[in-house]
Amino acid sequence: MNLSIKMYTTSRCYDCRRAKQFLRVRQIPFEEIDIDSDPEAEEFVKRANSGSSKVPTFDVGGRIFHCSPFDIEQLAHELGVE
User: Fold this and answer.
1) Any idea what DSSP says for residue 56?
2) Single pTM value for the model
3) Which of 10, 11, 18, 73 is the most exposed, fewest CB within 10 Å of its CB?
């Protein structure tokens, strides 16, 4: 997979931990951005999700989507992996 993956998270998010595990097990590189420590990232997530801080939110090559609640099948489909 050659797409740039940014994953917007919070440290207290269980769904974020599950999504990170999903990516790591499949050896899919990603950049994690903690919206608790980055106000601009939090604003980005809110704009992408109609004012809600839904995490994890993904930016995959410019395509934005959230996976909250975590759904392994949705994330695999969105990323084109098994």
Assistant:
1) S
2) 0.93
3) 73
